[in-house]
Amino acid sequence: MKPHKYQSIVILTGAGISAESGVKTFRDQNGLWENHRIEDVATPEAFARDPALVHNFYNMRRQQLLSDDVKPNAAHKAIAALQNSHPDVFLVTQNIDNLHELGGSTQVHHMHGELLKSSCTACPAISDINEDLSTDMPCPGCGEIGTRRPHIVWFGEMPIDMDLIFEKLMNCDLFISIGTSGNVYPAAGFVQEARMSGAHTVELNLEPSQGASMFAEHHHGKATEIVPEYLKMIT
Ligand code: BJW
Fold first, then answer.
1. How many Å apart are CA 34 and CA 37, to the nearest integer?
2. pTM above threshold 0.85
3. N or C: which end of the chain has fewer CB within 10 A?
4. CB of 93 shorter than 6 A to ligand 1
5. Distance (Å, whole) CA 190 – CA 195
């Protein structure tokens, strides 16, 4: 069997990988939703101030994700194929959609949470949710009313299982960043962690990201084209 060119691969994805699947990128439309700055909706303070507004924002996006128009694309599928043919590929996504799973990935680390899950401000319960969330729904774990929230990491909150991500970054020899603008930390700093570990670093994005100069190699174009092409080159 042909030896693998890289032994341990970390792939970070962002909204750009799902753009051609019909999911709007985070900073589309000047970062506005119905005249609210998205940064003013995606925070725990916004949820405390106006939970109905925040539920509405995520309910709309959940309905869109569950519509027949949204499907995994060639980039999601190429990553899943790599994971199936290589023993050590860790996929960490900033996306809250489920398109990596639908594309065939069996390991996906959702560092910013998942739109099809809810959590509770009163207990540790995390539950699947396909319908709209509202302020009068009881938590399936503790039965409290008004404590259920989207299972999303908002600004100012700690992304999920950072220790695992940093451990993978410290031990990889290839780091690939796909479809992310490099605006949001800690994900925007992963390239530096990987470089410090001696990994080769690659950016695959429509345009140079905020942190493009940190990467050793760049390919710019649509994810559905450049991701399958690049992953074919390294296998
Ligand atoms: C294509 C394409 C195609 C298009 N093909 N490409 C000051 C300085 C530094 C940091 C901070 C600061 N003040 C506050 C912070 C921290 C803050 C932060 O980074 N803020 C910035 C705005 C400055 N971060 C946090 O609060 C995080 N927590 C934290 O830091 O905890 C403390 C900590 C300390 C130490 C270690 C660890 C932790 C939490 C961040 C939570 C982010 N959550 C969000 C919203 C929730 C989910 C949701 O509602 O959707 O997650 S923010 C939003 O941005 C979302 C995304 O996952 C995230 C990243 O966006 P992404 O994916 O990059 O999307 P876009 O739209 O920006 O870019 C898309 C790219 O695709 C573009 O480049 C396009 O060109 C490209 N593209 N079509 C290929 N077809």
1. 8
2. yes
3. N
4. no
5. 9
